[in-house]
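lol forgot to send this yesterday, sorry. struct tokens for the thing we talked abt
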């Protein structure tokens, strides 16, 4: 798979996440955050399990205990990010949450340098800032006073960034679909533990929100996160973060189609910034790559 094809998969993942935003926020009106995470994760795991089994049958080398533990650790990171975002959305505005979640755009290359000593291409830094500015403009171009929920969303952004980086490391095993199954199974187990402990278990609420849970479980979780894991095998985490940030762009697009929402001029500028950032990280590294010098034979 070429890097262009991988980035297109990440763009598709961002589109699915953008579509799922309405379903996610609607479900939260009837069901607790931990129960929501647990049920959607169970659905996600079972929806892609057949593909993971097929992937394992084709694999030339089997996974070991260390691989599964690493996949589960990524699931723990994913759960923390999901939980912080879900709980934060209860006490902050969508505008603030949309922008503050986008902080992972900057955190991915920064943490990549600090943790893995992986320096990205120079174009990543201005493109990350430009995409972050685009998300800010899409969110309305303003932030209200920071509340407890805002700090939770920022806390979650750190774990979103860490999850992107760890997937980049885990993909060395060559089993992205199995990785997705294990990480969602981990989220499901932890989610149910918290849901039972906090008294969030309400199967009638699950029945009411089954459409939202089915969409977020199969598509927003199972399909989109698997596309992320596959796409990241052939591109760098900082580039992946920029393409995944298209979630904000597609959320605005589908909001206009299905909810009759209209973007302001400032919002359109935000869309343009995200789009230009994605083009730049794809095209500029190709244009600036050193071409091999021709060998002149005497």
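and heres what i got for the seq, position by position
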């Amino acid at each position: 798979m070429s890097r262009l094809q991988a980035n297109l998969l990440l763009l598709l993942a961002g589109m699915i996440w953008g579509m799922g935003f309405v379903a996610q926020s609607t479900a939260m009106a009837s069901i607790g955050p931990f129960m929501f995470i647990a049920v959607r994760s169970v659905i996600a795991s079972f929806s892609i399990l057949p593909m993971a089994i097929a992937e394992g049958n084709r694999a030339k080398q089997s996974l070991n205990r260390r691989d599964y533990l690493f996949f589960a650790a990524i699931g723990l990171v994913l759960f923390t990010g999901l939980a912080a975002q879900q709980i934060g959305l209860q006490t902050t505005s969508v505008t603030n949450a949309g922008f503050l979640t986008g902080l992972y755009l900057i955190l991915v290359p920064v943490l990549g340098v600090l943790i893995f000593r992986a320096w990205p291409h120079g174009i990543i830094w201005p493109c990350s800032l430009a995409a972050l500015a685009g998300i800010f403009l899409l969110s309305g171009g303003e932030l209200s006073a920071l509340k407890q929920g805002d700090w939770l969303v920022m806390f979650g952004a750190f774990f979103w960034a860490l999850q992107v980086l760890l997937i980049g490391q885990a993909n060395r095993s060559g089993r992205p679909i199995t990785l997705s199954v294990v990480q969602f199974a981990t989220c499901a187990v932890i989610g149910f533990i918290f849901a039972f402990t906090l008294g969030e278990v309400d199967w009638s609420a699950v029945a009411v929100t089954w459409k939202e849970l089915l969409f977020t479980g199969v598509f927003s979780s199972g399909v989109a996160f698997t596309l992320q894991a596959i796409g990241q095998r052939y591109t760098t985490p900082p580039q992946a973060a920029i393409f995944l940030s298209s979630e904000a762009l597609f959320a605005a697009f589908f909001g206009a189609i299905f909810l009759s929402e209209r973007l302001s001029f400032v919002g359109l500028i935000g869309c343009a910034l995200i789009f230009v950032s994605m083009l730049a990280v794809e095209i500029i590294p190709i244009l600036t790559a050193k071409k091999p010098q021709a060998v002149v034979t005497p």
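The chain is about 75% helix and 0% strand. anyway ping me if u want another try
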